[in-house]
């Protein structure tokens, strides 16, 4: 299978439903709203990369420039003050079709995400790894890129999964009891 790794834009709208289905199937049923890819591809502070087999979207990853850090407060109460004067990016989400998981495609997508973040002069890149116990989690991608684990929280997804219910692929119906690890990469 010859995969093409490239940016996903608004011109790729025909594949958005398949992308949303892939995200929800691999990361949590009903976690991503139907308009998620529309929003990300229309946002100049977001970058969406896909792995295509012809017209079929087989994987995707999102990077973003962050201006608000409240999402990360449970990991570090001082993070807002620490990062407020830095250019901060995020490895927001990454998913692969189940048949391609563990084959290095996520790393290739992440290379493109990192290039984009560096081109936007990011000094710090954050990411959260879902510690689901499933075979293919993002911690491997973070560690291969040199990210350092900051802190693990056992209940990070618990309240969000009650507020916006989704079915976790590991623990099932809400609440999600999977831990999460905040990863950080300081770019020199």
Series of secondary-structure elements, N-terminal to C-terminal: EHHEEHEHEHEHE
* Fraction of helical residues: 25-40%
| Form type | globular
Tally of strands:
7
Oligomer: single chain
Helix count from the secondary structure assignment = 6
Sequence of strands across the biggest β-sheet: 1-2-3-4-5-7-6
Strand content: 25-35%
Instruction: Kindly report the average pLDDT value.
Output: 93
Structural class: alpha+beta
Ends: how far apart? 36 Å
Stretches with pLDDT under 50, minimum 5 residues: none
**Biggest pleated-sheet summary:** 7 strands, mixed
- Rounded radius of gyration (Å): 16 Å
Question: Layout of SSEs?
Answer:
Layout: E1 4-7, H1 16-27, H2 36-42, E2 46-53, E3 56-66, H3 79-83, E4 88-96, H4 105-119, E5 124-130, H5 139-144, E6 148-153, H6 158-163, E7 180-186
Parallel strand pairs: 4-5
Antiparallel strand pairs: 1-2, 2-3, 3-4, 5-7, 6-7
Observed structural traits:
single chain; 188 residues; alpha+beta; 28% strand
Could you write a compact summary of the structure shown?
This protein is of the alpha+beta class and 188 residues long. It contains six helices and seven strands.
């Amino acid at each position: 299978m010859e995969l093409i790794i490239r940016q996903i834009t608004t011109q790729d709208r025909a594949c958005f439903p398949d992308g949303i289905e892939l995200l929800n199937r691999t990361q949590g049923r009903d976690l991503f709203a139907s308009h998620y890819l529309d929003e990300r591809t229309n946002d100049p502070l977001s970058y969406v990369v896909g792995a295509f087999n012809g017209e079929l979207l087989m994987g995707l990853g999102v990077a973003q420039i962050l201006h608000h850090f409240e999402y990360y407060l449970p990991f570090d109460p001082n993070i807002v003050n620490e990062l407020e004067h830095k250019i901060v990016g995020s490895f927001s989400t990454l998913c692969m079709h189940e048949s391609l998981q563990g084959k290095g495609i996520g790393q290739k997508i992440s290379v493109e995400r990192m290039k984009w973040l560096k081109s936007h002069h990011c000094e710090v890149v954050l990411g959260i790894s879902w510690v689901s116990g499933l075979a293919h989690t993002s911690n491997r991608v973070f560690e291969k890129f040199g990210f350092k684990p900051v802190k693990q929280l056992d209940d990070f997804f618990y309240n969000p999964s009650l507020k916006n219910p989704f079915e976790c692929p590991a623990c099932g119906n809400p609440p999600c009891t999977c831990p999460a690890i905040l990863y950080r990469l300081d770019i020199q």
